[in-house]
Each structure stands twice: as structure tokens, then as C-alpha cells.
């Protein structure tokens, strides 16, 4: 069987590819620029674009399982081509589809749910990889500056997201399921900073920004006003789903979810000064 992974060069897509390879599956990766994909040996990399479903026809040949993302284009806009993608997948003989939730219902998600293939919705909370946004400031000045430092998150290791998706694609019993995926613990910003400091072997300072200071920083970085408002809301009022641990990873994969300490150890070099 062949599995096609879209968004294969993204944070989660790479993990879906890696987990399918680990399970001994044949993997095909869709990307707009195969020359820059930098995927593991053994992966068949093909050119395609979800915003132009015609490019998917050769990529879907012989595919039985398909991992989809719900956005495309330069600005990660929700895909409006879901109906065409689902029709092409069904015509090609795809039997199972996983959809990475992008933060709420999308046209593609609706099309998949209304289609004739078995689907599983993969709904992760905050990625542990988001901590990499702090790497430059930590390397340069041993410092993190964030608002709402006591907010809690049940952040999830991106490899666990890939593992859940791979199981849903390759095993029976997951059709029609929506899997909320979290890590094994809730952490504050303070907890995360302490964990990163321990992993890299050097203390990291933490400065709490006011909401106004954070908004101004984001605006200066080019963040549009709508996104700034969203960030302030989600950081200041994290929804229950984002701060409540669930056992999805263990139930689906048969092993405990990875901890942030494990993620920090794996990425410690990203937080150490260079040179």
C-alpha cells in the first residue's frame, strides 16, 4: 500500500512521514518544491499543490491512505478545493483519510466528512515545537519575554501527532473519529522555561510582558490586527481543550505521550549559543 502525505515538509507532516516509514509503509510526499523537501531516504517526493487539485492526479495513483492539511497557498488560507480533492481521492481508490485540524471547521474538513472515504480528524493542541520561537532570544540573551506567563497548556510533541495519524491511516477502528491530542501534563510558561534551561544546561530569564506590550511587539513583527487579537484571547483565555490532558496518544498508539522534557532534550542545541 502507498500513503500520500500532504504538507509533508511541515512540522506535523514530517512526523507523519517518519512514523509511516517506521511502520514499514511505502510513503509518497506531496510538496510544491521537491528539490527543497529534504525528506528521509525511501520517501517518494512528488510535486503538487492542494490549491490546484489537477496536480494531485498523478500523486494519487495507487494511493490507499491520504493525510491532508486544510490550508494552502502563501498565507495558509483555508482550502476551498476540498470537494475536488475528495472526489479525486475516491476515484483513485483511497480508502482512508486523516485530516489535520487547523483550528476549526474548514471547507475541506466538511468535504471529507461528506465524502465516501473513511476519515479521521486529528486535532492537536499547542505544539511543543512552538517553543522554538524563543530560541533566538534565548541564544542571544538567555531570556524569554512573554505575556500571561502563568497560563497553562497541555502541549503535545509533534511526533505524537504523527504517530496518531499513522495509526489511523494503517489500522482499522478509527473511521469517523475525532482525536483531540495533548501531551501528558499541563505546563505554564514558567515550567517550559525551567525545562528548557535544564535541557541546555544554562539558566534562562523570564520577563512577563503586559498584554499591551505583547500586542505592540507582535504588531512590530508584522502580525496583522486580527491575529494579534486572536493571540491575546487564546493566551489570556486558553480554552479547556488546550489545557486539559487527555489520553488519546496512549489509547491510540499503545504508549504514553512524550513529555516536554523529552522534547527539550531532543532540541537542546537550538537553545544554546553558537560559535
TrEMBL record:
Ranges for domain NAD(P)-binding? 7-101
In terms of superkingdom, the source organism counts as Bacteria
Pfam families, per this entry? NAD_binding_10
Can you say what this protein is called? NAD(P)H-binding protein
Q: Tell me the organism.
A: Streptomyces enissocaesilis
Amino acid at each position: 500500500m502507498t500513503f500520500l502525505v500532504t504538507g509533508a515538509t511541515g512540522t506535523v507532516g514530517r512526523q507523519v512521514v517518519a512514523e509511516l516509514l517506521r511502520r514499514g509503509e511505502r510513503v509518497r510526499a506531496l510538496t510544491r518544491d521537491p528539490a527543497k523537501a529534504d525528506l528521509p531516504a525511501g520517501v517518494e517526493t512528488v510535486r503538487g499543490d492542494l490549491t490546484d487539485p489537477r496536480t494531485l492526479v498523478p500523486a494519487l495513483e495507487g494511493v490507499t491512505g491520504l493525510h491532508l492539511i486544510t490550508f494552502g497557498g502563501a498565507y495558509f488560507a483555508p482550502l476551498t478545493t476540498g470537494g475536488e480533492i475528495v472526489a479525486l481521492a475516491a476515484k483513485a481508490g483511497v480508502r482512508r483519510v486523516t485530516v489535520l485540524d487547523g483550528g476549526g471547521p474548514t471547507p475541506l474538513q466538511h468535504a471529507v466528512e461528506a465524502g465516501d472515504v473513511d476519515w479521521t480528524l486529528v486535532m492537536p493542541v499547542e505544539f511543543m515545537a512552538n517553543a522554538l520561537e524563543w530560541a533566538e532570544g534565548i541564544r542571544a540573551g538567555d531570556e524569554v519575554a512573554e505575556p500571561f506567563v502563568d497560563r497553562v497548556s497541555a502541549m503535545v510533541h509533534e511526533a505524537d501527532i504523527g504517530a496518531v495519524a499513522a495509526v489511523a491511516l494503517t489500522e482499522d477502528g478509527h473511521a469517523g473519529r475525532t482525536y483531540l491530542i495533548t501531551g501528558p501534563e499541563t505546563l505554564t510558561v514558567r515550567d517550559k522555561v525551567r525545562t528548557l534551561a535544564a535541557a541546555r544546561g544554562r539558566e534562562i530569564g523570564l520577563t512577563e510582558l503586559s498584554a499591551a506590550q505583547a500586542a505592540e511587539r507582535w504588531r512590530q513583527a508584522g502580525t496583522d490586527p486580527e491575529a494579534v487579537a486572536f493571540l491575546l484571547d487564546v493566551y489570556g483565555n486558553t480554552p479547556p481543550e488546550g489545557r486539559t490532558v487527555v489520553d488519546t496518544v496512549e489509547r491510540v498508539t499503545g504508549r504514553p505521550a512524550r513529555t516536554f522534557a523529552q522534547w527539550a532534550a531532543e532540541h537542546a542545541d537550538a537553545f544554546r549559543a553558537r560559535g
